[in-house]
Amino acid sequence: MKYAIVTGGTSGIGFGVAKMLLKKGYYVFATYVGEEFKEEIPNFNPINIDQSCRDKVYNFIKYIKSQIDHIDCLVCNSGVTIRKNFTETTDQDWDKMMEVSVNSHYIMVREFFPIIPKGSRIIFTGSQMGLMPHATVLAYGVTKAAIHGLTKNLVKEFEGTGTTVNAIVPGFVETPWQKEKPEEIKQNIYRKTAIHRFATVDEIVDAYRFCIDNPFINGSLIEINGGYSYK
User: Fold this and answer.
1) Count of CB atoms within 10 A of residue 32's CB?
2) Is the Cβ–Cβ distance between 96 and 28 less than 8 Å?
3) Residue 179, burial from CB neighbour count under 10 angstroms (0-12, 13-18, 19+)
4) Where residue 133 falls among pLDDT bands split at 50, 70, 90?
């Protein structure tokens, strides 16, 4: 049996990736936070964990190690944004965003390292905002830029193992998160995107599938933004 972990794996891109992995025959563990996930899916184990709490991250790692002896695919997808102006963002806001997006995933890769077999896949969810500043989400953009850097640096740690490390860098995607945006802001983003719409989750998930299937893609930041900011 192949085993995968998808953080933030019960909604949006993460859930799309989890379902793709299930179709490929993986048993999938998924983290999530918030309301209880009640849907029962074969070979899918959703675990409610707040990744902003480091003790809970270590408890999750301990639980996974008690259940399985190897991880074939680790998708580091969880992230959080707190929409505040630069001067209004508190230390607590900054720390929470960094803890969820960067620190918890760094810890997971480090602690799972001994049980990641040769030829495995590690995929991070980056963001166009980590490459291109946008509106009032400075801290979120910095967390994603850190994820991009972590991706490239981890390649050296897995050198010679056949395990690849990549990051998918989406632009704007039709997820529940984006539904909160006012229509005026959405239309403004559409105008800055050559395709004139947001991506579907399936269009983004295809990039994760590509990274899993192709053993030569390594250390790449794969942008999928529909031609964002082309004018």
Assistant:
1) 22
2) no
3) exposed
4) confident
More confident residue, 24 or 197: 24
What is the enclosing helix (H) or strand (E) of 156? helix 138-157
Query: Which token pair is 50?
Result: 């707040």
Dihedral sign (CA 176, 181, 182, 183): negative
pLDDT value at residue 231? 52
Report how far residue 27's alpha carbon sits from residue 11's, in angstroms, rounded to the nearest whole number.
17
Question: HEC states along 96-111?
Answer: HHHHHHHHHHHHHHHH
Tokens standing for residue 204 = 């983004």
Its pTM stands at 0.92
Q: Which amino acid is at 5?
A: I
Which tokens is 108 given? 């997971």
Is 72 strand, coil or helix? coil
Cα–Cα nearest to 206, from 170, 172, 230, 178: 170
Contact criterion met (CB below 8 Å) for 75 and 208: yes
pLDDT tens digits for range 34-89:
989 999 999 999 999 999 999 999 999 999 999 999 999 999 999 998 888 888 98
- On the question of pLDDT at 6 being above 60, the answer is yes
Q: Which amino acid is at 221?
A: L
Cβ-proximal residues to 181 (8 Å cutoff; 6+ apart), any chain: none
